[in-house]
Amino acid sequence: MSIDCELLSLLRANPRITVLTGSGVSAESGIPTFRDAQTGLWEKFSPEELATPAAFLANPSLVWRWYAWRREIIAKAQPNPAHFTLARMQARIPGFTLLTQNVDGLHQRAGSVDVVEYHGNIMRSRCSRPGCLPDAPCGEGEPPPCPACQAPLRPAVVWFGESIPAYAHLKATEASEDCDLFIAIGTSAMVYPAAGLAELAKSRGARFLEVNLDKTPLSRLADFRLQGPAARMLPELEQALWPSVETP
Ligand code: OAD
Protein backbone atom coordinates (compact mmCIF):
# COMPACT_ATOMS: atom_id res chain seq x y z
CA MET A 1 0.00 0.00 0.00
CA SER A 2 1.35 3.46 -0.78
CA ILE A 3 0.49 6.05 1.83
CA ASP A 4 -0.05 9.67 0.86
CA CYS A 5 3.10 11.70 1.68
CA GLU A 6 0.95 14.60 2.80
CA LEU A 7 -0.75 12.35 5.36
CA LEU A 8 2.61 11.15 6.69
CA SER A 9 3.91 14.74 6.94
CA LEU A 10 0.78 15.73 8.83
CA LEU A 11 1.13 12.79 11.23
CA ARG A 12 4.80 13.63 11.85
CA ALA A 13 3.97 17.24 12.76
CA ASN A 14 2.52 16.39 16.20
CA PRO A 15 -1.12 16.93 15.28
CA ARG A 16 -3.96 16.61 17.75
CA ILE A 17 -5.71 13.48 16.57
CA THR A 18 -9.26 12.34 17.26
CA VAL A 19 -10.16 8.82 16.20
CA LEU A 20 -13.70 7.47 15.91
CA THR A 21 -14.02 3.73 15.56
CA GLY A 22 -16.97 1.58 14.54
CA SER A 23 -17.64 -2.12 14.46
CA GLY A 24 -15.40 -2.68 11.40
CA VAL A 25 -12.42 -2.33 13.76
CA SER A 26 -13.51 -5.44 15.63
CA ALA A 27 -14.51 -7.43 12.53
CA GLU A 28 -11.17 -9.21 12.41
CA SER A 29 -11.56 -10.19 16.05
CA GLY A 30 -14.51 -12.28 14.90
CA ILE A 31 -17.21 -9.93 16.16
CA PRO A 32 -19.91 -9.40 13.54
CA THR A 33 -20.28 -5.73 12.57
CA PHE A 34 -23.42 -4.11 13.85
CA ARG A 35 -25.30 -4.50 10.60
CA ASP A 36 -24.01 -8.08 10.19
CA ALA A 37 -24.98 -9.10 13.72
CA GLN A 38 -28.38 -10.32 12.60
CA THR A 39 -27.13 -13.73 11.50
CA GLY A 40 -28.23 -17.27 12.30
CA LEU A 41 -31.00 -17.28 14.86
CA TRP A 42 -31.23 -13.52 14.67
CA GLU A 43 -31.37 -13.00 10.93
CA LYS A 44 -35.06 -12.26 10.86
CA PHE A 45 -34.65 -9.23 13.14
CA SER A 46 -33.33 -5.82 12.14
CA PRO A 47 -31.17 -3.79 14.58
CA GLU A 48 -34.11 -1.45 15.01
CA GLU A 49 -36.23 -4.36 16.28
CA LEU A 50 -33.70 -5.34 18.94
CA ALA A 51 -31.83 -2.20 19.97
CA THR A 52 -34.63 0.13 21.01
CA PRO A 53 -36.40 0.95 24.29
CA ALA A 54 -39.70 -0.05 22.60
CA ALA A 55 -38.32 -3.49 21.68
CA PHE A 56 -37.17 -4.05 25.26
CA LEU A 57 -40.51 -2.97 26.65
CA ALA A 58 -42.37 -5.28 24.24
CA ASN A 59 -40.11 -8.31 24.65
CA PRO A 60 -37.37 -7.93 27.28
CA SER A 61 -36.43 -11.60 27.11
CA LEU A 62 -35.82 -11.52 23.33
CA VAL A 63 -33.67 -8.40 23.56
CA TRP A 64 -31.77 -9.73 26.58
CA ARG A 65 -31.01 -13.00 24.74
CA TRP A 66 -29.71 -11.13 21.68
CA TYR A 67 -27.33 -9.19 23.90
CA ALA A 68 -26.36 -12.34 25.82
CA TRP A 69 -25.43 -13.96 22.48
CA ARG A 70 -23.30 -10.95 21.53
CA ARG A 71 -21.67 -10.86 24.98
CA GLU A 72 -20.62 -14.48 24.60
CA ILE A 73 -18.94 -13.77 21.25
CA ILE A 74 -17.19 -10.72 22.69
CA ALA A 75 -16.01 -12.55 25.82
CA LYS A 76 -14.23 -15.11 23.62
CA ALA A 77 -12.77 -12.53 21.18
CA GLN A 78 -9.30 -11.01 21.35
CA PRO A 79 -8.17 -7.54 20.27
CA ASN A 80 -6.66 -7.52 16.77
CA PRO A 81 -3.75 -5.56 15.25
CA ALA A 82 -6.01 -2.55 14.60
CA HIS A 83 -6.78 -2.23 18.33
CA PHE A 84 -3.13 -2.72 19.30
CA THR A 85 -1.89 -0.18 16.74
CA LEU A 86 -4.30 2.45 18.04
CA ALA A 87 -3.09 1.78 21.61
CA ARG A 88 0.55 2.25 20.54
CA MET A 89 -0.30 5.41 18.61
CA GLN A 90 -1.99 6.84 21.67
CA ALA A 91 1.11 6.11 23.77
CA ARG A 92 3.34 7.96 21.26
CA ILE A 93 1.16 10.89 20.25
CA PRO A 94 0.18 13.55 22.78
CA GLY A 95 -3.26 14.95 22.04
CA PHE A 96 -4.66 11.64 20.86
CA THR A 97 -8.30 10.93 21.75
CA LEU A 98 -10.06 7.67 21.03
CA LEU A 99 -13.85 7.71 20.62
CA THR A 100 -15.61 4.45 19.95
CA GLN A 101 -19.13 3.47 18.98
CA ASN A 102 -18.20 -0.10 19.86
CA VAL A 103 -19.59 -1.60 23.01
CA ASP A 104 -17.12 -4.51 23.12
CA GLY A 105 -14.32 -3.05 25.29
CA LEU A 106 -11.60 -4.42 22.97
CA HIS A 107 -9.77 -1.08 22.75
CA GLN A 108 -9.27 -1.10 26.52
CA ARG A 109 -8.17 -4.74 26.44
CA ALA A 110 -5.55 -3.76 23.82
CA GLY A 111 -4.18 -1.05 26.16
CA SER A 112 -5.99 2.11 25.06
CA VAL A 113 -6.80 4.45 27.93
CA ASP A 114 -9.45 7.11 28.51
CA VAL A 115 -11.57 5.59 25.74
CA VAL A 116 -14.75 7.57 25.20
CA GLU A 117 -17.50 4.95 24.92
CA TYR A 118 -20.06 6.80 22.86
CA HIS A 119 -22.62 3.99 22.84
CA GLY A 120 -21.85 2.43 26.25
CA ASN A 121 -20.48 -1.03 27.04
CA ILE A 122 -22.28 -4.31 26.51
CA MET A 123 -20.47 -6.06 29.36
CA ARG A 124 -22.12 -3.80 31.91
CA SER A 125 -25.78 -3.79 32.89
CA ARG A 126 -27.95 -1.16 34.45
CA CYS A 127 -31.42 -0.91 35.88
CA SER A 128 -34.08 -0.13 33.29
CA ARG A 129 -35.74 2.22 35.76
CA PRO A 130 -34.35 5.74 35.22
CA GLY A 131 -32.32 6.98 38.18
CA CYS A 132 -31.84 3.52 39.74
CA LEU A 133 -28.55 1.52 39.57
CA PRO A 134 -26.32 2.80 36.71
CA ASP A 135 -23.96 -0.19 37.04
CA ALA A 136 -25.85 -3.17 38.41
CA PRO A 137 -24.47 -6.61 39.27
CA CYS A 138 -26.08 -9.22 37.05
CA GLY A 139 -27.84 -12.23 38.60
CA GLU A 140 -29.96 -14.97 37.07
CA GLY A 141 -32.79 -14.34 34.64
CA GLU A 142 -33.59 -13.20 31.14
CA PRO A 143 -33.36 -10.37 32.03
CA PRO A 144 -32.27 -10.57 35.68
CA PRO A 145 -34.08 -8.31 38.17
CA CYS A 146 -32.37 -5.19 39.52
CA PRO A 147 -31.02 -6.05 43.00
CA ALA A 148 -32.29 -2.69 44.30
CA CYS A 149 -35.81 -2.40 42.85
CA GLN A 150 -36.56 -5.68 40.97
CA ALA A 151 -37.20 -3.87 37.65
CA PRO A 152 -35.57 -5.72 34.74
CA LEU A 153 -31.89 -5.03 34.13
CA ARG A 154 -30.83 -3.94 30.65
CA PRO A 155 -27.48 -3.73 28.90
CA ALA A 156 -25.65 -0.44 29.55
CA VAL A 157 -25.65 0.52 25.89
CA VAL A 158 -27.27 3.34 23.95
CA TRP A 159 -30.31 2.23 21.97
CA PHE A 160 -31.84 3.86 18.89
CA GLY A 161 -33.72 6.94 19.97
CA GLU A 162 -31.78 7.34 23.25
CA SER A 163 -29.39 10.14 24.13
CA ILE A 164 -25.63 9.71 24.18
CA PRO A 165 -24.32 9.75 27.79
CA ALA A 166 -23.68 13.42 28.59
CA TYR A 167 -20.00 13.03 29.50
CA ALA A 168 -19.20 11.00 26.37
CA HIS A 169 -21.02 13.49 24.15
CA LEU A 170 -19.18 16.44 25.69
CA LYS A 171 -15.75 14.79 25.37
CA ALA A 172 -16.44 13.66 21.81
CA THR A 173 -17.66 17.10 20.74
CA GLU A 174 -14.65 18.85 22.30
CA ALA A 175 -12.18 16.39 20.80
CA SER A 176 -13.78 16.72 17.35
CA GLU A 177 -13.82 20.51 17.47
CA ASP A 178 -10.21 20.74 18.63
CA CYS A 179 -8.30 18.30 16.46
CA ASP A 180 -5.99 18.73 13.47
CA LEU A 181 -6.73 15.28 12.09
CA PHE A 182 -9.94 13.30 12.48
CA ILE A 183 -9.78 9.59 11.66
CA ALA A 184 -12.91 7.46 11.16
CA ILE A 185 -12.21 3.74 11.13
CA GLY A 186 -14.61 0.92 10.30
CA THR A 187 -17.84 2.82 10.62
CA SER A 188 -20.66 2.98 8.09
CA ALA A 189 -21.40 6.53 9.32
CA MET A 190 -25.12 5.91 9.16
CA VAL A 191 -25.94 6.65 12.78
CA TYR A 192 -26.05 10.16 14.17
CA PRO A 193 -24.83 11.93 16.23
CA ALA A 194 -21.63 9.84 15.91
CA ALA A 195 -21.54 10.25 12.13
CA GLY A 196 -21.72 14.04 12.55
CA LEU A 197 -18.43 14.19 14.49
CA ALA A 198 -16.33 13.98 11.32
CA GLU A 199 -18.41 16.74 9.77
CA LEU A 200 -17.91 18.84 12.91
CA ALA A 201 -14.14 18.31 12.80
CA LYS A 202 -14.01 19.21 9.10
CA SER A 203 -16.08 22.35 9.67
CA ARG A 204 -13.45 23.45 12.23
CA GLY A 205 -10.61 22.98 9.75
CA ALA A 206 -9.37 19.46 10.59
CA ARG A 207 -8.15 17.15 7.88
CA PHE A 208 -10.01 13.86 7.65
CA LEU A 209 -8.74 10.33 7.09
CA GLU A 210 -11.16 7.47 6.50
CA VAL A 211 -10.13 3.84 6.94
CA ASN A 212 -12.76 1.41 5.68
CA LEU A 213 -13.28 -1.61 3.46
CA ASP A 214 -15.83 0.35 1.43
CA LYS A 215 -17.00 3.85 0.68
CA THR A 216 -19.41 5.47 3.14
CA PRO A 217 -21.46 8.67 3.19
CA LEU A 218 -18.40 10.33 4.79
CA SER A 219 -16.03 9.39 1.98
CA ARG A 220 -16.84 12.53 0.04
CA LEU A 221 -15.41 14.59 2.93
CA ALA A 222 -12.21 12.60 3.22
CA ASP A 223 -8.86 14.23 2.50
CA PHE A 224 -7.21 10.82 2.74
CA ARG A 225 -8.57 7.28 2.46
CA LEU A 226 -7.08 3.92 3.31
CA GLN A 227 -9.33 1.33 1.74
CA GLY A 228 -8.96 -2.15 3.22
CA PRO A 229 -9.22 -4.06 6.50
CA ALA A 230 -8.32 -1.95 9.52
CA ALA A 231 -6.21 -4.75 11.00
CA ARG A 232 -3.90 -4.45 7.97
CA MET A 233 -4.20 -0.74 7.11
CA LEU A 234 -3.35 0.61 10.58
CA PRO A 235 -0.16 -1.46 11.13
CA GLU A 236 0.95 -0.45 7.62
CA LEU A 237 0.38 3.20 8.42
CA GLU A 238 2.32 2.77 11.67
CA GLN A 239 5.22 1.09 9.85
CA ALA A 240 5.36 3.92 7.33
CA LEU A 241 5.44 6.45 10.16
CA TRP A 242 7.82 4.71 12.52
CA PRO A 243 9.68 2.01 10.57
CA SER A 244 11.61 0.94 13.69
CA VAL A 245 8.46 -0.07 15.62
CA GLU A 246 8.24 -3.81 16.08
CA THR A 247 4.70 -5.05 15.57
CA PRO A 248 3.81 -8.33 17.24
P1 OAD B 1 -21.83 -0.91 10.77
O1 OAD B 1 -22.10 -2.39 10.81
O2 OAD B 1 -22.94 0.00 10.37
O3 OAD B 1 -20.65 -0.60 9.76
C1 OAD B 1 -19.43 -1.30 9.78
C2 OAD B 1 -18.49 -0.58 8.83
O4 OAD B 1 -17.23 -1.20 8.95
C3 OAD B 1 -18.90 -0.66 7.36
O5 OAD B 1 -18.70 0.61 6.76
C4 OAD B 1 -17.91 -1.67 6.76
O6 OAD B 1 -17.56 -1.35 5.41
C5 OAD B 1 -16.72 -1.46 7.65
N1 OAD B 1 -15.86 -2.64 7.81
C6 OAD B 1 -16.24 -3.95 7.93
N2 OAD B 1 -15.17 -4.73 8.14
C7 OAD B 1 -14.08 -3.91 8.16
C8 OAD B 1 -12.70 -4.11 8.34
N3 OAD B 1 -12.19 -5.31 8.56
N4 OAD B 1 -11.88 -3.02 8.30
C9 OAD B 1 -12.38 -1.77 8.08
N5 OAD B 1 -13.69 -1.52 7.90
C10 OAD B 1 -14.53 -2.57 7.94
O7 OAD B 1 -21.25 -0.53 12.19
P2 OAD B 1 -21.03 0.88 12.88
O8 OAD B 1 -20.71 1.94 11.87
O9 OAD B 1 -20.10 0.69 14.00
O10 OAD B 1 -25.28 2.02 17.46
O11 OAD B 1 -22.46 1.17 13.46
C11 OAD B 1 -22.61 2.37 14.17
C12 OAD B 1 -23.68 2.24 15.15
O12 OAD B 1 -24.85 1.82 14.47
C13 OAD B 1 -23.46 1.16 16.19
O13 OAD B 1 -22.67 1.60 17.25
C14 OAD B 1 -24.86 0.93 16.63
C15 OAD B 1 -25.64 1.02 15.34
O14 OAD B 1 -26.79 1.68 15.42
C16 OAD B 1 -26.15 1.79 18.43
O15 OAD B 1 -26.45 0.67 18.78
C17 OAD B 1 -26.69 3.03 19.06
Separation of the first and last Cα atoms:
20 Å
Helix-strand topology string: HEHHHHEHEEEHEHEEH
The mean pLDDT is 93
Per CATH, the class of the largest domain reads Alpha Beta
What topology does this entry show?
Layout: H1 5-12, E1 17-21, H2 47-50, H3 53-58, H4 60-76, H5 81-92, E2 96-100, H6 106-109, E3 116-117, E4 120-127, E5 153-157, H7 166-177, E6 181-185, H8 196-203, E7 207-212, E8 224-227, H9 230-241
Parallel strand pairs: 1-2, 1-6, 2-3, 6-7, 7-8
Antiparallel strand pairs: 4-5
Helix pairs in contact: 5-9, 7-8
This protein binds 2'-O-acetyl adenosine-5-diphosphoribose (OAD).
2'-O-acetyl adenosine-5-diphosphoribose is lined by residues 22-24, 27-28, 33-35, 47, 51, 101, 119, 158, 160, 186-188, 190-191, 212-214, 216, 229-230.
Commentary on this structure:
This protein is an alpha/beta fold. It has 2 domains: 1-30 and 79-119 and 164-248, Rossmann fold (3-Layer(aba) Sandwich); 32-76 and 123-157, SIR2/SIRT2 'Small Domain', CATH 3.30.1600. The protein is 33% helix and 16% strand. It contains 9 helices and 8 strands. It has helices at residues 5-12, 47-50, 53-58, 60-76, 81-92, 106-109, 166-177, 196-203, 230-241, and strands at 17-21, 96-100, 116-117, 120-127, 153-157, 181-185, 207-212, 224-227. A 6-stranded parallel β-sheet has the order 3-2-1-6-7-8, with helices on both faces. The radius of gyration is 19 Å and the shape is elongated. The mean pLDDT is 93. 2'-O-acetyl adenosine-5-diphosphoribose binds next to loops.
